[in-house]
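_Backbone structure tokens_
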Amino acid sequence: MAPCSPLSILLFLSVAATIAAVSYADDFPPPYDFKHVCDPDRYKKLNLSVAKFAFCDKSLPYRARAKNLVDSLTLQEKVTLLGNQNADVQRLGLPRYNWWSEALHGVSNFGGGSRFGKNVPGATSFPLPITSASAFNEQLWKAIGQAVSTEARAMHNVGMAGLTFWSPNINVVRDPRWGRILETPGEDPFVVGRYAVNFVRGMQDVVGQTRPLKVSACCKHYAAYDLDNWATAGMIIDHMKVTEQDMVETFLRPFEMCVKEGDVSSVMCSYNQVNAIPTCVDARLLRGTIRNDWELHGYIVSDCDSVDVLLNTQKFLDDTPEDAVAQVLRAGLDLDCGDTYTKYLESATLRGLVKESELDQALINNYVVLLRLGFFDGQPAYDKLTVSDVCSEQHLDLATDAARQGIVLLKNSNGALPLSTKKHKSIAVVGPNSADNSVQIGNYAGIPCNYVTAVDGLRRYASVDHKIGCADVRCQNETFIFPAVRSARNADATVIVAGLNLDIEREDHDRTNLELPGYQNQLIRQVADASKGPVVLVIFSAGGVNVTEFNVSDKISAIVWAGYPGERGGDALADVLYGSYNPGGRLPLTWYTPEYLLQLPMTSMKLRPVDELGYPGRTYKFYNSTTIYPFGYGLSYTTFSYSVVSTQSHCTLLRYNQSAYVPPCHAARVDDLDCADDISVTVEVKNTGSLDGSDAVILYSQAPDGILGAPIKQVVGFQRVLVEAGKSSNVTFSLSSCKSLSIVTDSAYVAVPSGRHTFIVGSGDNAVPFAFQVYLRD
């Protein structure tokens, strides 16, 4: 047998870790056979009296109840409750519980904490976050969270789901090759943070540590995690060299927003090392930042098996396993998704490596969350939810609407779209993603209620001749191209549904290029050449793909990006193509040209350009060169114009270039200011076209000229607004100068520079800049 290459070894390690994490959940609940732990009838069946246990006394505060429960446990029992699969403690009436459930874009059966069965065969599968993020609609994100949590709670009430869901993924997309882009809300840390805040609030339904939770959400993967397996690099064996400036500005910001503004009840630390320290053993990042600085009201959990990985794969600690788990616990990790804690914490405690009181505090953090969830007492506000609340028409309609809002129109030559039911009665639909169910729901998916593919959706509007064009998305032979070409010759219009799927981009699988796979380009060319009517190219993908040729080709009339649109994606796509819905989505990340990948390795973590190495900047904030489509790009079937009306301090040093004016007070440190929403910006959005439409209005800020390392621009607000044809609507942004005008200095201070700031509404030809002056006193 040939020896394994470094890449194959890395792939084996990463996949094996995932498989192991899933397999040891197989024999754990659900189904659960009780409504809530402290049900007196349940205790009677156990020959116990609920009155004996103060942790069942609802008159006591959550923390007092959790402490009583933990004080009642033996050391051995405590250790068994610090892994994600809690064993039962029969003498106290505690049942088994699996903490690991997922709800990235709908309730999932991944992780084993929630399952489907005869009584609940499926749950609504919403678009993946990269597609929902394209809507730039905070109300939509919260509504999705509310719907997902309703279905989760309903499933819990019939014994088929847990209450702790390890979602959302809020890692910022740094590189277009990353395989997990589909799980994230894109490349801007502010947008990602606002997605997190709204989705979490929708899931948990409350804010405040003493209030009940609908379900528990978890913001992951903390922090600076955005690489899986690329070339010889991987999340398990490599560490990320990250500047403090980039940590504060980009990699930590969404998590800070998730904790402080979203009041999330859990944060998950990631596998990777940051500056040579695995995040799950970094006390500064966990206890220091999440627990103390941000004041998390909840628990910190490891990514599954990451404690084992730092011990046995990364070999971060040369000491015994007991020394390792003691350090991890002291760093602030409350719950181990895996079995390393349960194997070694008891002996670590008995050897004096860790205090038993430190185990107690971790357990209290965990159990306060379960108490807030009603796991012990029930939750009257949600106890009546049942199977009829899963896959409801209301949720399916929301899934369709979310997909519609997330679809982005990238090209529309000569008004080729929308298609007409009168002119385009017979259409050809070709391409490897035209009838593929799996590409719609991506990963971390459950079992959908039902699928509507692109072909299914378009059949509501026209007679469809469907030809696959490629055997699968890899498109490794030309066998199926000619039937697709023949179909296009006779059709009133042709829709080519191409792109990527989980074979090309996913967890554990980063891309090495930005091209469409195999013979897809040839399929598109030949079909477009043969078509007698307009040709619409639809791309299913998370990351950008190289469509430069088709963007300038006269043979391609329109290009539409559909992302991963969820189970009702086919209906949404058809509604957009035939004009029942006017697209208004915008790209949440930059689509780079292929040359970009030749300029820097995926392992380079710096966001700003590195001139001595010839590395360009990353993301729209720091990259100022050629793109296929920029961040925030998206067209409509109508046109909009903007006009702006705006209404209306301690110093730190910045570096300026030699030609710039240097004010006496360079900047104010945000820590020294009394921050409030002190800026109001009102934007008039006028629909200057002939069709009603929604517009995602994005507001950017620019720091004063001449500050080295300042972002080119950065998003400070966005709203989606529906405007009737020929009419106007006002959108008002309430901003804090401390947040909206601040930058992060070289030394990682958050500071507001003195001088002439600029706000920009929109981008490209539609952009409207206007100045805002900041004066500071020494």
